[in-house]
Design brief:
The structure is a single chain. By secondary structure, this protein is mostly helical. It is 59% helix and 6% strand. The chain is built from seven helices and five strands, in the order E-E-H-H-E-H-H-H-E-H-E-H. Helix 1 packs antiparallel against helix 2. The longest helix has 30 residues. The termini are far apart.
């Protein structure tokens, strides 16, 4: 999530090649697209049948809101906060959302043998909801992981770090800034083509994230949706 720096540190010494430190005090400034994406994950999860969720279907949305409230309050009150604190809260939200997604896909596979013809439409709808959730979850992961987060990417001049967008291939001489929708596109192509499109993972953690996304997408699209179509055609 994006944040702007209000450094209370003295200027770095000449020759210091690491201007960004975790000691910098920052003010959280959210990107509305990111907040909407987080809430959309909870809403999609809410639309799933409760047999595919852990606890009530509204639980994930409630947890997300509870974790977002401190960040929104900090932004509204313009209170300083450490960059690391913002990232830990963001990762907590993503960890909960990813766990909920993985468990729901596992439950869908578990209940698959017992699906009847009358429930085929519900299976298709659930698969579509999980596929969309997969895209949103990993779009947020890519946004938060790339280059150490939005704050650090800004400090580094938006050079290619974990992902290299086409605009960064020449060293990003134009100062192009990747927004959340750019990472959402990376997640969409990864979930659809099951491989990178025009944006390439450069680090092991980026490659691992894309592998996990592709595996979940492959499970939903190929195994679950195909089975539902077969049931409809029988």
């Amino acid at each position: 999530m994006k944040s702007t720096e209000e450094s209370q540190q003295s200027s770095p010494a000449p020759g210091d090649n690491a201007p960004f430190t975790q000691k910098h005090t920052i003010v959280f400034v959210p990107r509305w697209a990111v907040l909407i994406g987080i809430l959309a994950i909870g809403i999609l999860y809410l639309a799933l049948p409760e047999r595919l969720t852990v606890g009530p279907s509204w639980l994930l949305l409630a947890i997300e809101v509870a974790l977002l409230i401190p960040l929104i309050y900090i932004w509204m009150a313009r209170r300083p906060i450490q960059h690391l604190t913002v990232r830990l809260l963001a990762f907590a939200i993503l960890a909960v959302a990813t766990a909920g997604l993985a468990v729901s896909i596992g439950l869908l596979i578990y209940t698959l043998p017992n699906v009847t013809n009358k429930e085929a439409a519900l299976l298709l709808r659930s698969a579509a909801l999980l596929w969309c959730t997969n895209i949103l979850v990993f779009g947020l992961w890519y946004w938060e992981v790339d280059g150490g987060g939005a704050h650090k990417r800004q400090h580094m001049g938006h050079q290619a770090a974990d992902f290299m967008f086409p605009q960064q291939a020449d060293g990003n001489k134009t100062g192009w800034v990747p927004e959340f929708v750019d990472y959402l596109f990376v997640a969409f192509t990864g979930a659809t083509a099951l491989s990178p499109a025009d944006t390439y993972p450069l680090t092991r953690r980026a490659k691992l994230l894309m592998m996990i996304e592709a595996i979940l997408s492959l499970t939903v699209i190929v195994v679950l949706a195909a089975r539902a179509i077969n049931i409809l055609g029988s």
